[in-house]
């Protein structure tokens, strides 16, 4: 069994992990096998069991608040493993990184290759999807894009019936209610990992189109696409936003540890 990487005794820098995702949990697990102190941060409260060297915080951070947090806790590196559609967080992290000259490691999820198929449509945003749905007369539609997209899809569901699946959490239902979404069309449930589950949902709702976002394999995007194709209905997918150019991509634990060793402590004498 390999030895646990141990920071030099003089190092006081910590790691800040933005999570709330499968990837965030994976980063926390990797860091749990080291002696690096780290903070795990999410926008909303989540239940997570962290190793002894991890601490948890939640709540959205403004740019100024993030800078202050990093200074207070001597953050030497940010590992950005949050949702690919957390655009505000992307921008906030990029600005804090610029101000403090902090490296940002981006642990990105895996994405299926974009398909060229008559039933698969990629769009820049939900407004583009709404225009296409209304022009083609697709109704009802089934949104598998989460509660945060109820607002952006308002123009559609105010004119045509829309079913929307949200996570089975009180907060999600409360957000839908606050938006004025018809609760009779709200479906609470976890994303289906099995093709049969998603096909059954499409058939049960009578959906003539599916709406989702390019959330990667962690969001079961391949399953959603396959279900729509099996059911013979078009699927409309919002393309994931581009990440700031300064983020450094990582995909493996050894890459993370190599970056942290260099960023927090500088290169070794032998390097």
Description of the molecule:
- The protein is α/β, with parallel strands linked by helices.
- The chain folds into two domains: 14-108 and 243-265, Rossmann fold (3-Layer(aba) Sandwich); 120-238, Rossmann fold (3-Layer(aba) Sandwich).
- It is 35% helix and 19% strand.
- The chain has helices at residues 22-32, 63-72, 87-100, 126-136, 154-157, 170-179, 195-205, 221-231, 253-265, and strands at residues 14-18, 38-42, 54-58, 75-80, 104-107, 120-123, 141-143, 162-166, 186-188, 209-213, 235-238, 248-250.
- The strands form two sheets. It has a six-stranded parallel beta sheet, sandwiched between helices. A six-stranded parallel beta sheet has the order 6-11-10-7-8-9, sandwiched between helices.
- Helix 2 (63-72) crosses helix 3 and helix 7 (195-205) packs across helix 8.
């Amino acid at each position: 069994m390999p030895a646990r990487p141990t920071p030099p005794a003089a190092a006081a820098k910590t790691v800040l992990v933005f999570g709330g995702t499968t990837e965030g949990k994976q980063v926390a697990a990797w860091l749990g096998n080291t002696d690096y102190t780290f903070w795990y941060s999410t926008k909303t409260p989540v239940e997570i069991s962290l190793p002894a060297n991890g601490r948890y915080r939640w709540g959205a951070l403004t740019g100024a608040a993030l800078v202050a947090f990093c200074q207070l806790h001597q953050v030497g590196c940010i590992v950005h493993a949050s949702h690919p559609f957390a655009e505000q967080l992307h921008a906030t992290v990029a600005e804090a990184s610029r101000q403090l000259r902090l490296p940002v490691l981006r642990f990105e999820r895996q994405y299926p290759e974009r398909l060229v198929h008559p039933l698969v449509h990629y769009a820049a945003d939900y407004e583009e999807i709404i225009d296409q749905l209304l022009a083609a007369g697709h109704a009802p539609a089934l949104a598998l894009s989460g509660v945060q997209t109820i607002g952006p899809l308002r123009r559609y569901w105010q004119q045509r019936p829309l079913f929307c699946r949200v996570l089975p959490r009180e907060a999600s239902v409360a957000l839908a209610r606050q938006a004025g979404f018809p609760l009779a069309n709200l479906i609470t449930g976890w994303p289906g990992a099995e093709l049969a589950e998603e096909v059954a949902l499409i058939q049960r709702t009578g959906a003539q189109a599916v709406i989702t976002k390019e959330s990667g394999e962690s969001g079961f995007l391949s399953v959603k696409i396959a279900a729509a194709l099996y059911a013979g209905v078009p699927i409309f997918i919002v393309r994931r936003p581009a990440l700031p150019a300064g983020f450094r991509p990582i995909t493996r634990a050894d890459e993370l540890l190599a970056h942290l060793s260099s960023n927090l402590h500088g290169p070794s004498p032998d390097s």
